[in-house]
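Review box. Two proteins, two foldings.
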Amino acid sequence: MRKHFILAAIIILLGVCNLYSQDAQEIIKKVQNNYNGIKDAKASFSHSVKYSSGKSQSESGTIYIQKENKYRIETKGQVIITDGVTSWSYSSKKKQVIIDNYKNDGNTFSPNKYLFSYPENFYSDLEGSEDVSGADCYLLKLTPRSRGNVKSAKIWVDKNENLIRKILIVSSESTDTYLLKKISLDSGISSSKFTFSPPSDVEVIDLR
């Protein structure tokens, strides 16, 4: 799956932390502890990317998550869904849906997996405070422990509402910026949100 979907999920789930300490490591620990009590989450997000070639683009959408490995990501013209067993990638523009088995491996998107592995793969430092759309935020800098595609990352955490408001990822190919507009936790998202019945007029490519 495209990395912006992974990071959008990270933003949502990291947003549940309570910042009683200004130490970056303690913030991350509280994130992980609090996540254990979350059953589902929903958020709208915007994503802008600037490629190393100089080109840029932006998009927005909504993501739904339900533990353990269920998610639904809606952007303009595309919906990506999994119930933890089967995955669907539907393009209304192409009138096509690709169906596959959900694969829980190193290349597979999983909010749970990335929530827990992401902090472990980075050194974390509290750099200070910055304003994000009028919200006073803590700024955390993440530095990868080993060489890889991601060179660095920054996360902005709302001091008053204790939510992730912004994340910036610098990779070999691009610089990606994500903004969270609305976050809803434990709203009782129906399991039916994580299944998909293809419309009758679309091409179905079944890779199972």
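Next protein.
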Amino acid sequence: MPFQPRVAILVPAPDYPENWQPAFARKATALTGAGLIVEQRVWTDPGDLSGYDLILPLFAWGYQRDVAAWYALLDRLEGEALPVANPVPVLRWNSDKAYLSELGAKGVAVVPTAEVAALDEASLADARLQLGADEVVVKPAISGGADGTHRIAAGDAIPADALGQRRLVQPLMPGILAEGEFSLFFFAGQFSHAIVKLPAAGDFRVQEQFGGRETVWEASADAQSLATAALAAAPAPPVYARVDMVGDAAGKLHIMELELIEPSLFLHHAPDKGAAFGTAVYAAI
């Protein structure tokens, strides 16, 4: 009988409100199809992980709401030298969107971003001036699922949850409203598939819980090149990756975010339904 590695997928606690099971089933199907045995472990209290051939944080949903627990888990995984994909240095680097400034410094086109240590009217005005934008989006540096993300027009008050907090300030990119947000997926460094996510009318957020919808997108050579350049900046090559990008007023694409921790992979839109994902994970063992 061929060797069947055991992999642990880290999942949310039982009381987590979002419905993660359908996406889990798609990923698990791809992994079992590649010859892996898949088990679930709750990321906030995973117990003994030493018996696994690989640990995947693919459903560590909500880590941005308990940052201390998340970093403690990363320290533990690293301290016990457990096999993790993506590797712990990649997970730690990707947890804080300050990496965007690092990408920009390396010449990668990113959404212009100003970091503010404690957001108030004066620092927001400074950020608007720096960015040359009246209408901006503010978001936590450690965030997910559009948690704490707000669109602020000129004259709008700063939302209470952002006031006095460390925040990233970005211009509202025209492309998000006109064309949507593009996501490209890579497994073991190879491009797999792409989608475009469209916000609901009157919204700027593309997540499903806010009425966003997605469809298959034929990624251009420029889009693939930009994604590849962004991924090359990671501390180690990621086994799986989602690269989100959006256009400016002229249609030029800019990196919005790299999703290297617990991305939705939309495997049902992949031509191979996730076979390349399963193969990449198996090869990482």
